Amino acid sequence: MKGYGQFCPIAKACEALGERWTLLLLRELLCGSHRYNDFKRGLPLISPTMLSQRLNVLQERGLIEHKRSSDQKNREYHLTQAGRELEPIVMGLGEWGARWVRSQMTDDDLSVELLMWDMRRTINSSALPPGRTVLHFDFNDLDKNYRNWWMLAEDGEIDLCVDDPGFDADIFFNSDLKTMTQLWLGDTTISRAQASGKLNISGSSRLTKNIPEWLMFSGFSNIKSGHG
């Protein structure tokens, strides 16, 4: 039996949402991802087959729908009313996780792909200088395939690159993946990471002086641990 065999609304909701990857796929949709490749960047470990299956199931359950992109060239996935109503539930789950279980994070939970994708979608481009701004992140504990990442901000758009875009960086971050993840989650601060020698920042003084204004951290970074 696939279901719980109970009429309880909680049981029925768990049947609809409790499969592996489903809640994380809803997280991606709530955070603004609409295209297949966007989901792959936010969920780098999901297989293409599983991703397609989960998208189909969410559509069958009335939580998402297909739409054409504004240029009519791409198929996108958007939340329905039923899907949008899950936002306080999904975000509440994140708040609970930040308060009670984020201390259980291990090195196996670290993902540079997810970290950079999360950082990319929360950059406050309105606080960046006019024109093109190039951000370069160097993770000194990763191999050459994942060590260097660039963000290009221009006209309110943020592009994430793993190949050198050919422009000089306006600001350069050198750190290890765990430190940058802790910074993103609010478990350390820029000044503390710099003082420990685990984070080095160089580049335009205009950008380095107001980092908190444009490098927005996780929406859960201000939640204090419930363990004291």
Structural overview:
With 228 residues, the chain is α+β, with helices and mostly antiparallel strands. The protein has 2 domains: 9-85, Winged helix-like DNA-binding domain superfamily/Winged helix DNA-binding domain (Arc Repressor Mutant, subunit A), CATH 1.10.10; 107-214, Nonspecific Lipid-transfer Protein, Chain A, CATH 3.30.1050. Helix content is 39%, strand content 17%. The chain contains 11 helices and 7 strands. It has helices at 9-17, 22-30, 36-42, 48-60, 81-84, 87-100, 112-122, 177-185, 190-195, 205-208, 211-214, and strands at residues 64-68, 75-79, 133-139, 148-154, 157-161, 171-175, 199-203. A 5-stranded mixed beta sheet has the order 5-4-3-6-7. The longest helix is centred in the middle third of the chain and has 14 residues, at 87-100. The model has no long low-confidence stretch (mean pLDDT 93).
Output the structural class: alpha+beta
Helix % is: 25-40%
Average per-residue pLDDT, rounded, comes to 93
CATH superfamily of the largest domain: SCP2 sterol-binding domain
- How far apart lie the N and C ends? 42 Å
Poorly predicted tracts of residues: none
Instruction: Please report which band the strand proportion falls in: under 5%, 5-15%, 15-25%, 25-35%, 35-45% or over 45%.
Output: 15-25%
Query: Could you spell the SSE succession in H and E letters?
Result: HHHHEEHHHEEEEHHEHH
CATH architecture of the largest domain: 2-Layer Sandwich
CATH class of the largest domain: Alpha Beta
Lateral arrangement of strands in the main beta sheet: 5-4-3-6-7
Radius of gyration from the CA trace?
Answer: 19 Å
Query: What is the count of β-strands?
Result: 7
Oligomeric organization of the protein chains: single chain
